[in-house]
């Protein structure tokens, strides 16, 4: 027996439908054109639009005269009314992005920071301290704060189960005392954090080109790389998280059963060939050498550096080919330091994929670098927060 929705549930669904159409419209819609687009009665749409305007979510601009018919008032997301904060904790830096419902970037900052050297509380506290420079506009509501970390998080998004490269185990930010975070508004607090895997957060940047603007056909493998290697599997606009939400740990896929021991306890993991620390070690550089220093060494013809990049490309090709064979994907997006390596490793990487992916004879494989740099995961986290807000009208308040 199918139980129909009650009037309140139907109202919320329709509010969400209208808001999503307003946010994703290439050209601003009027009440009449919106009603026609979504297939609802004009009186119903008009009543719901009144609610969105009263809530401060949507603004109705001055009527514009069209070539045909009466002047129509465009509906647009109200700028500066609601925003979401996205934060990334990586091994060597912290990044913060604040987006509003209109997609405007209200604040953005990235700071080099040795996150492995501090406790989880110190690191998260430092990330929040960066928000002291964000002047929250009067009347603006912060709808969510998402924190992206390179590790596994609990299904309720409240705790980090493990982040081997950060050295975090069973970290619950809301359990800490945060009295020392002065200079922040009450709504900017680690007690309200929603956690996400860093690779998944990065993928949201390509699933949503702007708040509410879903690319429903988005299907790709996103690779995120620093010391570790993570992945997000996206099919038709949705991230495949697996049974527990932990899918995508490609960095611990074995590419050589006789390979070096990994910090996870296994050996021959992809991370030991394509992780930044592993590559600079193989290149004979200092442990804290940057990806630019590695590229410079290879460009100057240093044999070990060239070999490290070649081994990275081949190992990456083996691991990614296994994923593509299993899941039938044809687009790979390279994030983190792999984006910087794209031009240098793409030939060897693509050769491996074409050699190992069965379907490559009939469907071409595309590889492209991420275009958002160190802000990818933080931006994706902010977009994820806005999407959660859009989907839940019951959380909207005047």
From TrEMBL:
InterPro entries: ATPase_NBD, ROK, Tscrpt_reg_IclR_N, WH-like_DNA-bd_sf, WH_DNA-bd_sf
Domain of life: Bacteria
Domain HTH iclR-type: 18-59
Alphabetized Gene3D superfamilies for the sequence: 3.30.420.40, Winged helix-like DNA-binding domain superfamily/Winged helix DNA-binding domain
Pfam families found in the cross-reference section: HTH_IclR, ROK
Family membership: Belongs to the ROK (NagC/XylR) family.
Name of the protein: ROK family transcriptional regulator
Upper classification of the organism: Bacteria, Bacillati, Actinomycetota, Actinomycetes, Actinomycetales
